[in-house]
Amino acid sequence: MPILQRLLPRLRDRETKYKAAIAVTQCAMSLHQVADSLEDLGRLNRDFPNDPQVLYITTHFCAEMAQSASMELAHKDPTSYQAQELDAEAYESHGKFTDALAEYRRILKQYPKLPEVHYRIGRIILEMPSTPTTAQDAINEFEEELKIDPSNAAAEFMIGDLDRQLQQWDGAIQHFKRAAQLDVSFLEADLGLGMALNAEGRYAEAVAPLERYVKGVPNDPAGHYQLAMSYERTGHRAEAERELARQRELNAKVNGTTQAVPDTGKPQDQPQ
Question: How would DSSP label each residue in 227-266?
Fold first, then answer.
């Protein structure tokens, strides 16, 4: 490693530099030098982006590092909330939602103000349709999350999405709007806001968030369809036709159809 580390910055031939960079990274990984490995991986991904071998090494090291860190955490501090959260997340990832809920609720008894836990419980409730819990139970959890962390855009979005499904448009609009304000990169909130505004007949207000959405997610037919509706209802016929044409084109690529309403899993039939 000392030889490689000393020579690597002076190498000019790209192929030699590539081999040396991989070698020094593998050395650091074999020695379990986490800090050096992360630095070397960062250099590899910066200098050789999208290279299959680099991506392969990155995938394996990150997986090994995650497993090693979780085992060390469980060994050194098994009663910490971080260790308990890892257990809950493991249950969740394996579909053991009842066990995950129980673990998250145990965490809340010890740490009632811990961020993200109520949010995770709310998401699990929505994954368990066979239980007697309801959408309102999930909303209650998301609201509790916002009491702890008012900046949680995801919790705001989830309440907005549940309000949308219940056709409670005013609530949906407010929560989608808040989520978009909290996280300007949260483009799904812009789509939800545009859909809710369209459903309420507030087409002019829907244009701006929907334009942001289609600009950021240009290959989603739902965004183009919703924007076409807003344009049509505000007198922008040419723009509406353009968006519908783009929506049909995207649908054709996905499933060979030119249907006017995309089958995206998002409700498109809005009240007139």
Answer: HHHHHHHTT-HHHHHHHHHHHHHHHHHHHS---SS--SSS
Decide: residue 237, CB within 10 A, 0-12 exposed, 13-18 middle, 19+ buried.
exposed
* Amino acid, res. 180: A
pTM: 0.73
Q: Can you list the positions of beta strands (E) in 8-141?
A: none
Q: Are 218 and 211 in contact (CB under 8 A)?
A: no
Q: How many residues does the chain have?
A: 272
**May I ask the CATH class of domain 77-150?**
mainly alpha
The Cα 193–Cα 210 span in angstroms is 8
Check for a shared fold between 77-150 and 173-272.
yes
Class of domain 173-272: mainly alpha
Cβ atoms < 10 Å from Cβ of 169: 20
* AA identity, residue 95: G
- Output the average pLDDT for the chain: 88
Tell me how far apart the alpha carbons of residues 203 and 205 are, in angstroms, rounded to a whole number.
Answer: 5
Q: CA angle at residue 86 from 138 to 34, to 5 degrees?
A: 140
Instruction: State both tokens at 254.
Output: 């996905």
Task: Say if CB 68 and CB 62 are below 8 A apart.
Answer: no
Is 27 or 269 the better-scoring residue by pLDDT? Answer: 27
pLDDT for 256 equals: 57
- Between the two ends of the chain, the Cα-to-Cα distance in Å is 69
Domain ranges of the chain: 2-76, 77-150, 173-272
115-126: pLDDT as tens digits:
999 999 999 999
Residue 91 is which amino acid? Y
